[in-house]
Every structure is written in C-alpha cells, then in structure tokens.
Amino acid sequence: MADDELCFIPATRLAGMISLREVSPVEVTTAVLARAERLQPVLNIFAMLLADEALDLARASEAAVMRGDALGPLHGVPITIKDNVAIGGLPMRNGSLASVDLVPDHDATVTARVKAAGAILIGTTTLPEFAHKVLTDSPLYGITRNPYDLTRTPGGSSGGASAALATGVAPLAIGSDGGGSIRCPASCTGVAGLKATLGRIPNEQVPDSFANYAAVGPMTRVVEDLPLLLSVMSGPQIDDPYSYALEKFVPKPAKDPVRGLRVAWITQFGNVRPEPDVGALTQDAVELLAAAGAHVDAVSTPIFDNVFDTYVVIATTAHAARLEAMAAKWGNAITPSLRQSIVRGLGYSAAEWQRASDRRSVLFRAVQRLFERYDVIVTPTMNAAPVGLDAGGSIESEMYAQWAGYLYPFNLTGNPALSVPCGFTADGLPVGLQLVGAYHDEQRLIDVAATIERAGGWSARRPAC
After folding, report:
1. Is there a catalytic annotation at residue 157?
2. N or C: the chain end with fewer CB closer than 10 Å?
3. What does the domain layout of the chain look like in residue ranges?
4. What pLDDT shows up at residue 1?
5. Which of 82, 115, 133, 195 is the catalytic position?
6. Catalytic-role residue among 24, 157, 341, 394
7. Which residue in the list 181, 231, 337, 397 is annotated as catalytic?
8. What's the average model confidence in pLDDT over 352-358?
9. Does pTM top 0.90 for this prediction?
10. Catalytic site residue 82?
11. Alpha-carbon dihedral of residues 9, 10, 13, 16, nearest 10 degrees?
C-alpha cells in the first residue's frame, strides 16, 4: 500500500486492519512520521516531534499483535496531543518561553486513557501562548500555517492539531476548547472537532473545576472516528466534579438520524452574521438536512446578544488570576495580546465577575429551553473563512468576538458542540457547520454530522501540500 494512501485511512478502519495483520503499526508509524518530517518546515505543526519514541512504541505494538495479545481500541493508531495537555515526563510548554522547563510528573487523564487504549503518540502540537487566541502562533514555536493556503491560519488554539489531521500526519488528535479552540481549527482545515458536554471528558487540569468552561476533546480527520476517540477519552474521574455522574460514552448510532429531526437554524448571534460565502455554504448544508427529512426552522432569538461581554469578563479574569505573576516576571517575552488580556482582566472587580457568572447562568437556562422545542441548534462554525496569519485573534479582541461569535456561548453553557466540514469557498478554503446538542447528546450530533459529511463528500478533498 502506498504511504500516502496509508496516511489517510480513518483511525477506525486502521485499528481494524492492524488487528487483522493487514498492516503493521511500524509501517503506519513510519509513513506518518515521513509526512510529519516533510511538512514540519512548511506548516510548523509540532511543538515536539517524538519520532524515535513513536517508532519504539510501534515496534512494541507490532510485537503485541504478532503474539496475539488482547488489543486496545486504538492499538497502533497514531495520535497527537496539544502542548497544553500533560504527558508525564515530557515538557508541557503552552507555547510560552515562561514554561520551557515545565515537565509534568504524570499524565493527564485523557493522555493516560489513549495510551492505555494502544495509541502511538507521535508528537505534541502547537498552540498560541496559553491558548489565548484563535490563531496559532507563539513566541516559542512561531507561526503555524493552514495547509489549504499558507498565508492563512489553521485556526486556534488547536491549530497544530488541525493541520496535522488535514495533511495525513495523524488521523486522531487531542485538542482543547476554552472558547472555540477545537471547533475553530476544525472548521479552518476541513476536519471534525467535538467539544463534548461539560464533564463528559474529564478536565482535571483546570485550576477551578467548579467555574470551568474549558474542555479537552477529540479532533479527527473524518466524523466516523469521533465516537471511537470519544469513547476512549470519556468517563468519570475523581478530580473533575462534572464528570462524576457521567458514564463512559458508548457509541450507539441511529439508523435514520435526520428524518424528523427538529433543527433550529440560527445565523445571527447579536451583531454576528456570516459573510456571504460562509452563509451560502452553511445554508446549503442545512438544506441537505431538510432534504433528508429534518424539520428546519430559521430561528431568531435575542438570547445570544452581548454574550461576548459576559465571556470576556470570565476569560480575561482567568488569565489575570493565573498568569499575572508570570507576565510580570517575563515582561516583553510574553505575547503582547496575552499581556493585554491580563491587564483587561485585572480591571474587573469581583462583583463584575460575579455578575458575569450570573449572566452565564441566564444564558444556560435560555439555551436549555430551546432544546425543549428543538433537537439540534445549527449555526455556521465561524462567521468567515480562515483569516490571514496577522489577523490578531486574542480572546479579548473585537476580532475574536466576531469571528468566533458562534463558539464561546456554548463554552459558557456547557452544551456539546461539533464542527463538521460543509464545503469550500471559491478560493478553496474550508468552511464548517456547527451542530449544538442538549446535554449528553453527543451521539445525535455525530450521527447528523456523518450524514452531512457523506452527502457532501468533502472528506475526500485534501490540501495540496
């Protein structure tokens, strides 16, 4: 089998082929590492490429197959992990000069789970400094580029992960999403990304578990692999209170998930509207759902007006509380926009933070009321196609408020939200459609996304590089 063909096989099928000895973990790992080494100078995907370690794991994985050992669901399948998710014994630098020497002494829960499932970690992926914007560049790693247009961003903050997926470097990735950082890069590179229900996947790394709005989650080249990775990552963990009542996700796909589906199609969140090319492509995708038997209502609601005002208080005060001392010590070595976010956060009072948290609860309740009438909320993922490398994108900027305006509301509410590819602009840039579900309704979102992906055939398209 040609290496290029091997690199684009979905993880679910690849795991099956490995277990049947149709392809070896060493062969797969060698192929993806060759692509990684070729593309790293072009795209800047990796914070740290672990080629030797991955090949050692692949040899051990192959030996287990040949012995007839019991195999995990990800046995021999390559994966990347974002550089803000702990891997015991390896640096977790968060794209920052201030964290160059930070080495966690143990794995994050999600890291431990994918390792136990047999996945082969080939490297850690780039992000903006402390994941604070929706573009991927940092003082430590530099600029990460979109494989569909090297002058544009792959999104952020999980931009290295999305670029790796789109180019066949790995079929699976672990990303994180505190305001759209899985869904934005998924949209920008034509891959799939899921922010699961708050607590569905444990995130014990956050300092404040109770006020948490950030998730770690699965990113995959194709929708069919989302349930596989979600099933491995999910399940309760003692350090995350929101995970306590949630059992491990077990895939149970519906036979006809779209017929009779009640869809709320919302294109305006306050002053956020899609640009014409994004509006047309996402509208076409919604019409695919209608043609498959969904009941689609174009919905206008004020509940998303001014959500950024709430989100920016919560997000920037988190930066201020957690990163102020670091920024004071490192000064101009810290990204200017991150220092600006810290300053903004320091300007809010405790009362303003509490009022923002109260508004978060109002938004949560209003969104849940929508799910009394609808099964899925559908929006564009981003209001525009991938932007230029110098577009800004800081969490406290007007650019972020607009471009990511469909994303951060659902971090505040905790609802599951998935970005699925829905076409390409005339310039060849990917566009995503966001599907939002009721709490714990990830399976429905995956089923609907798979329907859209199959109908459009966009997963067959690959970047030129």
Report:
1. yes
2. N
3. 3-460
4. 62
5. 82
6. 157
7. 181
8. 98
9. yes
10. yes
11. 90
